[in-house]
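Q: Joint fold for the lines below.
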Amino acid sequence: MSKHFTLHKKQRLKSHKKIEKLFNSGLRFGVAPFRVVYQLEATTGLQMGVTVPSKIFKKAVDRNRVKRLTREAYRLQCKPLQNLLAQQQKGLSVFFIYTDKQLPDWELVRNKMPVILNKLMQIVNEAVVTNIK
RNA sequence: ACUACCAGCCGAACUAUCGUCUUGUUAGCAAUAACAGGAAGGAAAGUCUGGACAGCACAGGGCAAUACACCGGUGAAUAGCCGGGUGGUGCCAAGCACCAACAGAAAGUGCCACAGAAAAUAACUGCCCCGCGCAAGCAGGGUGAGGGUGAAAAUGUGAGGUAAGAGCUCACAGCAGGUAUAAGUAAUUAUGCCAGCGGGUAAACCUUGUAUGCUGAAAUGCCACGUAUACCAGCGCCUGAAGACGGCCCGUCUGAUGCUGGAGGGUAGGCAGAUUGAUUUUGCAAAGUAAUUUGCAAAACAGAUAAAUGAUAGUUUAGAAACAGAAUCCGGCUUAUGAGCUGGUAGUUUUU
RNA sequence: GGUCCUGUGGCCGAGUGGCUAGGCAGAGCUCUGCAAAAGCUCGUACAGCGGUUCGAAUCCGCUCGGGACCU
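A: Joint structure:
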């Protein structure tokens, strides 16, 4: 296990095409201030993206703030999910959409992120089980 | 001294751990790794403006549309900036401060509610003369601002003049026009003469002058991948469909495996554009009232492409602060802005 | 990133520069034994600030909000 909690280009969703596909056919669930869109991929690796609607936060500074906090929380806590996917030889695309009207603080985002990640791990496990059956 | 407002300056610093983008070097086939360096603003914002740059066009003419509008300077350019003029407002005045979308109402058209006789042509009422009539009044003629209003009433005051009156005449004052002289680069100012005095509104239409080809980096060029030069409908193939001059018309040019529409298929990756340029800041010197320009020296300048500056802990300051996040790049304008500092204005209190 | 449109009571919506219509909703009154229906009456309405004008919802400038289009 690496000592770095990295989050560079390869681990973010960069392709317009993939994002279109994710939003068209991906599955969704909601956790408190976030909505999560996810889809299992054939290729290995975990990719993520964040978006904040400009209708809710009119100022670019606020949108950047939310995105940074979300990315930071994800970066520090995504290791278990990554390891699980590596074990199962699976890929996953995740997209976070912030939907609350209040500007969040660091505590809130940090506490909510594990909830989402645990749920995702559960989903991955179930998918593997059904495939085996 | 405090408070409020206005203008300007400034736009926290340091350490540790983890992390993002990028440049260079080294290693590696590559993925990547290591080391060194760089990484938001005064407004990056609004998109209100002026350009650079790129593509298409570049025989021309007319109409339309839009913008601007005192003069000179500045600058790549502007609706910016600087200086001057004129006008307005404030202070008793000199003078000072602030403000001005500041061409034309004597080219034409429109509009001016309510009130008022009347909102610009006149009419009504009034005044005067003559005639008729006992009188009220009637008929004819003269006259033009006396008529309570209104934001605005035919330039104002005084005198002459007259039957009554009237810039009808005169004096003083005001207004705008022409012309001459003087000052000034000019706007304009001063004085004289001539002929006048028919409200306001052009941020109503408009007129005059000046400027503007259109589209914006999601422009544009190249490479790679891939498909359908197929199908349907219409028009046309030299008796001319359509396109270009991108608002329209004339006119000119191009023009045939073509053009338009429908349904459908494919791609949506990479490189360039693209970050050092009319650059910014500081210091010194020179020119200029100033904006600004020139020379020398030094320093600085991000470059992403679902889009990068963050998180945690601690310290200092003052409470771990306001407005706020680059997306082609520059000039200006406008708007937002905490604490502190500087200057100005107003108020309150204290002392002299 | 760029180009446009728009803002009138709680809601919808008309409005040549001269007192801001109308409908729905709400409140009160009349009618009724009680309601409904009907009738009458009522209210901080022109997004904000500044300018032009005698006078601005309207014209002009700036700001704020809402919406659409190009891609």
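Q: Anything notable?
A: Residues 11-132 of chain A form a domain with the Ribosomal Protein S5; domain 2 fold (CATH 3.30.230.10). The two ends of chain A are 31 Å apart (CA to CA).
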